[in-house]
Amino acid sequence: MGLRVAVLKIGGSVLRDQHAYHESAELVRDQLRSDPECRLLVVVSAEAGATDALEQLACDIASSPDSRLLDLLWSVGERKSAALLALCLQRAGVDATALDLQQIGLKVRRGSNGGVTAQLSPARLQHELKRHPVVVIPGFFGVDADGGVVSLGRGGSDLTAVLFACELGAERCELVKDVAGFFTADPNKDASARPIAELTHNQALEMAQAGCDLVQLRALREAASRRLTLVVRSLDRSSPGTRVVGSHEAGDLATWRFGDPLSEWAIG
């Protein structure tokens, strides 16, 4: 494509209210200012609680909602987030635009077992990245052969970010969460939980399989298969977050296993 691109995914747990949108816009603006030659693709989730609220609304009407209609209803949340963040960026003086699901080029096909396969044709997205330094897109969804909306499973915005980062040859892929990266335990439940500066893909996968849902399991698997380095972080710019890297890039932490004591040098 001839452009340097970075991917930044902002989770729904971060987008809690209007103030959080403006904070997120400031983070994007500051990243752009620090490297104005690098285009930013920003993937957003629905606001915290929005997907569950929409699902409950559907279930109040039909005890077993049609899955296609449920996907269509769910997509309202991500589309809202994309439009609002783009508006906040424009207000902050950033030349930003937002694309809808039918424009981003993420084609998905639902299998007979309920899983989905994805294929990217991002020509329109690449065109917009040439025209605008920041492009915001909804995560969690693609479209099928008929243009219908299809979800990528809970946490699917992580997968959206990883897929586009790989397809566009992104220099980095950051996943912005409501916690500052991976910890030795859930920091919301365990006061002794300590941050982890770096993990290998296999270690992150092991944590996910043990119940840590910080990053979607399929997204981690895709990043591992494509050797894509991830940075999992919060809006707090003083915290570097956790780098998730291939084992060939990892330092001493490559030998650590989830549940083992963590040495002081691993604290970030």
Could you give the order of the helices and strands? EHEHHEHEEHEEEHEEHHEE
Uncertain stretches: 252-256, 261-268
CATH superfamily of the largest domain: Acetylglutamate kinase-like
Q: Which sequence of strands runs across the widest sheet? A: 3-6-2-1-9-11-12-10
Roughly what is the average pLDDT, rounded to an integer? 89
Q: Please indicate the percent range of residues in DSSP E strands (runs of 2 or more).
A: 15-25%
What kind of assembly state do the chains in view correspond to?
Answer: single chain
Looking at the structure, what is the overall shape?
globular
Major beta-sheet overview: 8 strands, mixed
Structural class: alpha/beta
What does this structure look like?
By secondary structure, the chain is of the alpha/beta class. The protein has eight helices and twelve strands. It has helices at about 20-35, 50-60, 65-90, 100-105, 125-130, 155-170, 200-210, 215-225; strands spanning about 5-10, 40-45, 95-100, 105-110, 115-120, 135-140, 140-145, 150, 175, 200, 230-235, 240-245. The protein has an eight-stranded mixed β-sheet, with helices on both faces. Strands 4-5 form a two-stranded antiparallel sheet. Strands 7-8 form a two-stranded antiparallel ribbon. A hairpin with a 5-residue loop joins strand 7 (about 140-145) and strand 8. Helix 7 packs antiparallel against helix 8 (about 215-225). Mean pLDDT is about 90; it is low at about 250-255 and about 260-268.
Task: Show the helix and strand layout.
Elements: E1 4-10, H1 18-34, E2 38-44, H2 50-61, H3 67-91, E3 96-98, H4 101-104, E4 106-110, E5 116-120, H5 123-131, E6 134-138, E7 141-143, E8 149-151, H6 156-168, E9 173-176, E10 198-200, H7 201-209, H8 217-225, E11 230-233, E12 242-245
Parallel strand pairs: 1-2, 1-9, 2-6, 3-6, 9-11, 10-12
Antiparallel strand pairs: 4-5, 7-8, 11-12
